[in-house]
Design goal:
about 400 residues; alpha/beta; Rossmann fold; six-stranded parallel beta sheet; elongated; binds adenosine-5'-diphosphate; binds magnesium ion
């Protein structure tokens, strides 16, 4: 259970509140292409504004690396937020984030009014958790609220440092919800508890296997990660994605699963193609015998059947990472079938990971899942049991 103060535990009426959200939205030609993250912060924004806070919101956007990059301005997010709220949102356009506009807002916002600061990563101190910038941010508020789950695994000025210099702190509703769903799943799952891992960020994800093996009853591994395991077991994997440095680790994990009595399932067959292209000729082969000029791009039909059968009795399922290169229609079958199988389960189903969430959305199964996490890297680190600096910085109840 979450033992941190939430926005239901504090009184914000007439107070200056600084709210950190995750408005790190995808942009194309200055337009927001997916506003899921803005929508996810609405309950907290509405609550604080409705309770009479003088609300200053902040977020990062993209990777400007401490420089002012006009194309990464949060202005479009201010406009979209205003649209979604049906209410004015003042964009506080200071290139140094805390400048004359921000200071004006601190003095002049009325109860319930909202301002949005410029991209916090325009300041080089942000990602270094610089104390001076933390203090500047803190000078804008009596109360700091963190609702940015997607960045809570980073100790930055606006996600962690700032908390030390304000009178009161709390987490927002999104953070509370994420921690509750992910936390319950990991700490007290209804069993059988299954995890499905895939995707391409193999080296950053592979270490999660070790901690998941302490918790789950069933572990399914597909996507780009599977070929490292196939090679570790002596398979021929052609041009498939592989993490040579983790072959030994993969072998250890197979052994550990066996010792722990965890049912670890790896693909038995795989769809292969000579290149990542929907026009490319593709076929299914044994995962241990991929021809030299081919690469694994999806799990095969026998694997789909095997994974579906293993999931049948599961009561809690967490999924991170697509089963194949689902952006290419011909290589999306495995991801689609697993999403469908999860949607049909009578179980708690949780999706973590940006691309996995996108896949589930795109395939139309989003409303059939219990929870789709807004945090990619954050949800994984959480599942690994790591303490998140953005949560640790908030006062206990
Ligand atoms: P998430 O964002 O859900 O955490 P990742 O970022 O780790 O997932 O991986 C998503 C990407 O993995 C997708 O772009 C997908 O195309 C890719 N992928 C899945 N299977 C393979 C594969 N066999 N080979 C290469 N890339 C793959
Ligand atoms: Mg991703």
């Amino acid at each position: 259970m979450l033992n941190k103060k939430t926005i239901d535990d504090i009184n914000v009426k007439g107070k200056n509140v600084l709210l950190r959200v995750d408005f790190n939205v995808p942009l194309k030609d200055g337009e927001i292409t997916d506003d899921t993250r803005i929508k996810a912060a609405l309950p907290t924004i509405k609550k604080l504004s409705g309770d009479g806070a003088k609300l200053i919101i902040c977020s990062h956007l993209g990777k400007p690396k401490g420089e002012v990059k006009p194309e990464l301005s949060l202005k479009p997010a201010a406009d979209r937020l205003a649209e979604l709220l049906g209410k004015e949102v003042k964009f506080l356009k200071d290139d140094n984030v805390v400048g004359e506009h921000a200071l004006w807002a601190k003095e002049n916002l009325k109860e319930g009014e909202i301002g949005l600061l410029e991209n916090t990563r325009f300041r080089p101190e942000e990602e270094k958790n610089g104390e001076d910038f933390s203090k500047e941010l803190a000078s804008l508020a009596d109360i700091y609220v963190n609702d940015a789950f997607g960045t809570a695994h980073r100790a930055h000025a606006s996600t962690a440092g700032v908390a030390a210099f304000v009178k009161e702190t709390a987490v927002g509703y999104l953070m509370e919800k994420e921690i509750q769903f992910l936390g319950n799943a990991v700490d007290d799952p209804v069993r059988p508890f299954a995890a499905i891992l895939g995707g391409s960020k193999v080296s950053s994800k592979i270490s999660v296997i070790d901690s998941l093996l302490e918790k789950v009853d069933i572990l399914l591994i597909g996507g780009g990660m599977a070929y490292t395991f196939a090679k570790a077991q002596g398979g021929k994997i052609g041009k498939s994605l592989v993490e040579e440095d983790y072959l030994e680790y993969a072998t250890q994990m197979i052994k550990k699963a066996d010792e722990k009595g965890v049912r670890l399932l790896l693909p038995v067959d795989t769809v292969v193609a000579p290149e990542i292209d929907n026009e490319a000729k593709f076929r299914t082969v044994d995962i241990m015998a991929i021809p030299d000029n081919q690469m694994g791009v999806d799990i095969g039909p026998r694997t789909i059947a095997l994974f579906k059968d293993a999931l049948k009795k599961a009561k809690t399922v967490i999924w991170n990472g697509p089963m194949g290169i689902f952006e290419i229609p011909n290589f999306a079958q495995g991801t689609k079938e697993i999403a469908k199988a999860m949607a049909e389960l009578d179980a708690t189903t949780i999706i973590g990971g940006g691309d996995s969430a996108a896949a589930v959305n795109q395939l139309g199964f989003a409303d059939k899942m219990t929870h789709i996490s807004t945090g990619g890297g954050a949800s994984l680190e959480f599942l690994e049991g790591k303490e998140m600096p953005g949560v640790a910085a908030i006062a206990d109840k």
